[in-house]
Design brief:
single chain; 436 residues; alpha/beta; Rossmann fold; Alpha-Beta Plaits; 14 strands; elongated
């Protein structure tokens, strides 16, 4: 039996001679204003551009609640059909999530592909997945998304023959896109594979935990500059592009803070408003790096129109994965582009810092602030280290920050800031704790 991922991988590698023409649709519901809808559509347009297509028109509507058949009203759906003909659109993308029935009804009425924001995000992830784990995570999310959308008949193929936006990982078939049982078996197999990969990741994490180094995880909205910051700090060589979701797989590097204490710094996948639940579920093993961190560096693009909206979106995902209690340092990046706005944001968020990962502006202040924050959550202990135990002294220097040393008869008395893991490992040499 063929693999749905491999069957469709060719479609992601075929260069299309013409970019798809897309009409986007947004609906303003009670509790929101037109400006919110416009801002969300602007972001959707950026997502579509990242996916490799062009937005040629947009349509908005105010409604009290979604229409159960068309999502928009029937009259608006007819108007949308006429607009698609006028601009020769290939696909219609709704900014809101469509039910399988709404998607099917719209495609019949419009005579062209109708997808939602979730499908676009999944498409981008499918294009960017490169590692074994990343590919499995994305495929799992896609199959979970498509399973309830399968319909019989030649007119219900989700228009997948063209291989356009929202249609990665699967070509059209004449009687049914993919047999439900095949998809369910594939989902089960992927879940098993990811469980094995998760166990491997757990072993790797345990090895890092034994190192005694503090774990710092970089989180933030997509394209906020997380990978650029990691590269600036550690010369990690991580792909850093001005595009959404350029990074899917976590990368960990060692970083020495100004006081000399080393930490492990990890870059993560970017978040976005209304990140599909299926992606959060599929990427949970990857996102665990945030839940298990000692500190989060929350990077925000200070130059965007609504930085607070992006902060809220990231914190919503952090809550969804159980990382909301991990302390965070808010970092407003791209200060060189934001100008005075960066200082205003720092003033509005006490304890935050502003920097530019590209120019290096503010990096020193950021590192000192991070070092101070980490010191505040470490334990200052006093150890009596025999003079012949140079290995223990080396471990203390390697895993923490030495505050002072004093020569005593038969041993060296060392005061140091150490993580709980290091204190436990060096317990036989610990003679007391100290005031920080």
């Amino acid at each position: 039996m063929s693999n749905p991922y491999n069957e469709a991988l060719g479609a992601t590698l075929i260069e299309r001679t013409m970019r798809e023409r897309i009409v986007i649709v947004g609906v303003t519901f009670p509790g929101s204003v037109d400006e919110d809808t416009d801002a969300s559509l602007d972001e959707l347009e950026a997502l579509i551009d990242t996916a490799g297509a062009d937005v040629v028109a947009r349509m908005v509507q105010r409604r009290d609640h979604p229409d159960h058949t068309w999502f928009v009203g029937k009259g608006k759906a007819q108007e949308l059909h006429e607009l698609c003909l006028e601009v020769d659109a290939d696909t219609v993308v709704f900014d809101n999530e469509l039910s399988p029935a709404q998607q099917y009804n719209l495609e019949k009425l419009l005579g062209r592909t109708a997808i939602d924001r979730t499908a676009v995000i999944l498409d981008i992830f499918a294009q960017n997945a490169s590692t074994l784990e990343g590919r499995a995570q994305v495929e799992l999310a896609l199959l979970r998304y498509r399973l309830p959308r399968l319909r019989r008949g030649a007119t219900a193929k989700l228009s997948q023959q063209r291989g356009g936006v929202g249609t990665r990982f699967g070509g059209g078939e004449t009687k049914l896109e993919v047999d439900r049982r095949r998809i369910q078996r594939r989902i089960s197999r992927l879940e098993d594979e990811l469980a094995d990969l998760s166990r491997t990741r757990t072993l790797q994490r345990q090895q890092r935990d034994r190192s005694g180094l503090a774990a710092v995880t970089i989180v933030g909205y997509t394209n906020a500059g997380k990978s650029t910051l990691l590269n600036t700090l550690t010369d990690a060589g991580v792909l850093s592009e001005d595009r959404l979701f350029a990074t899917l797989d976590p990368t960990t590097r060692r970083l020495a803070l100004p006081g000399g204490e080393p930490v492990l710094l990890t870059d993560t996948v970017g978040f976005v408003r209304r990140l599909p639940h299926g992606l959060v579920e599929s990427f949970k093993s990857t996102l665990e790096v945030a839940t298990r961190a000692d500190y989060l560096v929350h990077v925000v693009d200070a130059s965007v129109a609504d930085p607070q909206g992006q902060i809220d979106a990231v914190r919503e995902v952090l809550t969804a994965i159980g990382a909301e209690r991990v302390p965070e340092l808010l970092v407003f990046n791209k200060a060189d582009l934001a100008g005075p706005e960066a200082k205003r944001l720092v003033d509005d968020h006490p304890g935050s810092v502003a920097l530019s990962a590209v120019t290096g502006e503010g990096i020193d202040i950021f590192l000192r602030t991070l070092a101070d924050r980490l010191r505040s959550i470490t334990t200052v202990v006093e150890l009596a280290v025999p003079y012949d135990r140079g290995d223990v002294l080396a471990a203390i220097h390697r895993e923490g920050e030495v505050v002072s040393t004093t020569d005593d008869p038969g041993h060296l008395r060392v005061r140091a800031r150490l993580s709980d893991a290091s204190v436990g490992r060096l317990a036989e040499f610990v003679v007391g704790s100290c005031e920080q």
